[in-house]
Amino acid sequence: MIYRADHIFPIEGEPIINGYVEIDEEGIILSYGSSDSLDAQRKASAEYLEGILIPGFANAHCHVELSHMKGLFRQGTGMDGFIQQINALRLTVNREERIAALTEQMEQMYEAGVSVMGDISNCDESFECKASSPIYTRTYLEVFGTEPEDAPQILAEALQLQEKATRMELDAAPTPHSPYTMSPLLNRLSAVEGLKSGYLSYHNQESDQEEDMIRYGTGELAEDYKARGSSMPPVTGESALKYFLDNLQKEIKAPIEGRLLLVHNTVTDQESIDEALKVLKSPYWAICPLSNIFIHRMLPPLDLLRENNLTICVGTDSLSSNLQLSMIEEIRCIQEYYPHIPLEEILRWCCLNGACAVGAEERFGSFRPGKKPGIVLIDNVDYKRMMLTKESKSRRIM
Predict the structure, then answer these.
(1) Per-residue pLDDT tens over the stretch 249-299
(2) Burial 93-107 (b: 16+ CB within 10 A, else e)
(3) Under 8 Å between Cβ of 112 and 59
(4) Predicted confidence band at 87 (pLDDT cuts at 50, 70, 90)?
């Protein structure tokens, strides 16, 4: 089967005007290139699609098990307000309804072109859906716990979840949530356990409230913890990311191996980036623009991340902090606020970089022959500016 389109973005290669992608019956990429290179018979047999063709998306950060919370959250509350809402609303519907909601979202993501996902799980409710889904998922079994005496039991429960996921042939391992929701002990023990798999996800520098809490022990988040009588992380006078890296180095000597996905990075700075590059061998930097706007009315410093040649990925986060789980909407948001970033570069973030972050790059992320990444059409593109329009949509072709 050969598909032709106005533009082909192979990701590992330059975009091609009037290009084609050829696949076998199983969807494996055989070749791609300019349609002018096809002989008359093959060109005539090719199916023309109006738009651009890309490999399947990699949604680098999602909480699909929170899909039942769609439309329930107030926006612009900051992290303390968001945490209060999620604690109050997480179990407002029963298990069957929660599973039905996440299943619907998984199906919608697949049809819209997602082939790979880095997904956060706090329980097993998404396991059956992910095990049967055509989307490849790496599951990060996220743990919380502010009291150090609870750390062994919390980690033991995460390891039990990991065993269940493994029996269902899911790639899964424990991962810490963030610096402010965990005791230092649980933070580093869960990170060490997760890195045994070679992969870790960590909510990093998502808000000023997080930074204020770690640096100075002040701010709305810190006051919320004090009011609830929860133990707070140590006040370090340094960034939240440096706190995490220093804590981790109590167990593992730098440079630390493994693909560590730092998520959000909304208020990261050069000092934090320098520290991460010194300590981590393979950091990935996931951004979730619409989620950051939803909660904090902020966006990550993309130009700073690009200036440092960081490996950027894109995620949707959850329907508790987003209106939809749509990679196209995330791209549209990036282009609205950062119109100077080329679409080619953004698509690399959304396809190959995300696949690399979860260890799926040999199968997904580009049109390299031998891969089976899926084929996605994006329509209604402004070719003159090479930008998406309000009418642009994505749909899976293969």
Answers:
(1) 999 999 999 999 999 999 999 999 999 999 999 999 999 999 999 999 999
(2) eeeeebbebbbebbe
(3) no
(4) confident
Question: In angstroms, what CA-CA distances link 116 with 76, 101, 286, 337?
Answer: 29, 19, 14, 26
pLDDT tens digits for range 131-173: 999 999 999 999 999 999 999 999 999 999 999 999 999 999 9
Q: Report whether 159 contacts 174 (CB < 8 A).
A: yes
The one-letter code for the residue type at 216 is: Y
Amino acid letter at 385? R
Assigned token pair, 188: 């580093």
Q: Is the pLDDT of residue 89 over 80?
A: no
The residue extents of the domains of the chain are: 1-55+365-398, 57-364
Burial 204-236, CB ≥16 within 10 A → b, else e = bbbbbbbbbbbbebebbbbebbeeeeeeebeeb
CATH class of this structure's domain 1-55+365-398 = mainly beta
- Whether the pTM exceeds 0.85: the reply is yes
- Taking the CA atoms of residue 35, residue 341, residue 58 and residue 240 in that order, the dihedral angle to the nearest 10 degrees is 160
Asked, colleague to colleague, whether 1-55+365-398 and 57-364 share their fold, the answer is no
Containing H/E element for 108?
Answer: helix 95-111
- Rg, Å, the chain Cα set: 21
Looking at residue 296, what is its pLDDT?
A: 92
DSSP result, 268-333: --HHHHHHHHHHEEEEEEEE-HHHHHHHHS----HHHHHHTT--EEE--B-TTS-S---HHHHHHH
* Percent of the chain residues past pLDDT 70, beyond the cut: 100
Spatial distance between the Cα atoms of 17 and 273, rounded to a whole number of angstroms: 37
In three-state secondary structure terms, 20 is strand
339 is written with which tokens? Answer: 């119109």
Closest C-alpha among 224, 226, 263 to residue 241: 263
pLDDT at 90 over 80: no
Amino acid symbol at 79 = M
CATH number of 57-364: 3.20.20.140
